[in-house]
Amino acid sequence: MSLFKSIKEDSMLKRVVITGGVHGNELTGAFLVKKWQKTPLVTKNIKIEYLLGNPKAFKECRRYIDYDLNRSFSKKALSKDSYIYEFERAKVLKERLKSCDFLIDIHTTTANMGMTIVLSKDDPLSNLVAKKLSLEFDDVKILRWFSTSEGDFINSAVPHSITLEAGAICQGVLEPRIFFRCEEIVKRAVEILDSEINQDKFEIGKSVEVYDIVKIVDFPREENEPSAMIHPNILGKDYFQLKNGEPIFVTLEGETILYDGEPLYAVFINEAAYYEKKIAFCLCEKSKI
Questions:
Q1: Residue 41 lies inside a defined structural domain of this protein
Q2: Tens digit of pLDDT for each residue in 187-201?
Q3: Closest CA to 143 of 262, 243, 266
């Protein structure tokens, strides 16, 4: 019995979907999808479909039109007709993903996250693919974000998935080093799914580090607006261990605000799209799988 059959009894991996442009101004994934729509990846055992997540926002080079599409897959958002474009688009994508066995979703970030595999559900197959990629690519980290109060990610529509989050890169631009590195990692993920898992050739060696988001930190605010900025000492230092007493913010008047808490690892530091979500950075615990 293959590894995949041991995870999903009496089944083989048949259909993989690759999405990009779920956020319209994250161009790397969108243009990779458009490239593969013209020249599909070669596979032996699986069918791959390529989806541009938010075509309307992509055309306008905006993150979204009415609402964040990657927070629009909750039961509430999908339950009734809505004037919100992304809620209606989520219904279309949900239908397209009905028979999808595995989703690879490509995103970029303005935070200095490097190449990060984000897992949004704790299932064995997704964990194993992420682990394999982390072992093979020395710049790939694994981040697990299993819950969000903002709404469900697109990954909630499928049984197994990984999200590739690449940065730092500005919104609305392409950068060749990030573009081709993302292409390389996604191609390898497809090879793993197509050849190694379905053909029972999947091998795992040593353990790898994973980061689990346990806390979200907002900016200090006055009248709902940020009253401080990320301190220069931590800017661009995603995945470093933040310790008690270290500077995290500097006010508009120049006053330093210190961290008060247990040692944790900071990620998504100063992500531009998270200002509206009231997230200055996320804090993680580190462990191994």
A1: yes
A2: 999 999 998 876 665
A3: 266
